[in-house]
Amino acid sequence: MKLITVEEHYDTDQNIKEFKQYSEVKNNNPRQDQLRPDLVDFAKKVAYMDQHGIDMQVISDAGNSAQVLPDQYAVDGAHAQNETLAENISQYPTRFAGLATLPVNTPDQAAQTLEYAVTKLGLKGGIISGSVNGQFLDDPRFEPIFAAADRLGTTLYLHPGVITNDQKAMLYDSKAYNALSATMMAGAMWGWHMEQGIQMLRLLTAGVFEKYPHVKIASGHWGEFMPMFLERIDGFGGMISDLPLKYSDYYKRQVYLSPSGMYTAPQMQLVLKEMGADHIMWSEDFPYVQAGEQTRQFLEQADLTDAQREAIAHGTAETVFNLL
């Protein structure tokens, strides 16, 4: 069984240096420095993939992304990340595909960056991590990014990002437990994912999918809560929306989901029933998650038909990211 994983990450030493020097958004992963070799060394990535039966990774920069640098550094930082990514992919063209880092807070330049990355560097779309300085992507100022993706017929991966300090203080800080508990609750344990679910709901409500029907949206962590609530959202959507389709119709048409290393059978079966195997891809979230043999074994042993297994293992990703 061919296996492609689609939410896998890299970084560069230059970007790590600039992030630490300039970013107001501080990384809250206590293992970030420890993970550096797995982020920057593509030969090390290939060795891991060979060991665990992974044929290809779709690689992107998330976490320490140049996206969150101050505007005067973000454009050049994103360009440098994308050039370096393309160079690394050229050394292993059958093992990696890439998604462009976008300077999202400067939307016109982000759109230009996406187009250059797809048409000149051969990258397969772009990644956006979380909200942008606390602002969600439904704001009209971000439309150039969606317009460019729609024109290119390419994919935007909506990845979680570090939530704002104000959000964290209101929702997760407490005198009843320690600071580490609040940080984890606000991040990978819950808060990142809830914010990305809100991001998706806002895009649907704002009619972004109606206006840009050719954009494909990738969403990890089994859809960041959205699939569980599709019927509930549709039930209320008619009260607030005059869009021609139901929320779930847009979602099932343009969104593609993956587990991001959350190898859990109940969530998989829910997403499979809601979306179908042709809207599910596989992912490990390497190197933040290193599931090893389970990355392949879970999918091989899952309660799926052979056709579903092949679609989830590689077929959907090949279509979504134009890997054929």
From TrEMBL:
SUPFAM superfamilies (alphabetical): Metallo-dependent hydrolases
Entry keyword set: Lyase
Gene3D superfamilies: Metal-dependent hydrolases (3.20.20.140)
InterPro entries: ACMSD (IPR032465), Amidohydro-rel (IPR006680), Metal_Hydrolase (IPR032466)
Residues annotated as domain Amidohydrolase-related: 37-323
Superkingdom in the source lineage: Bacteria
Protein name: Amidohydrolase family protein
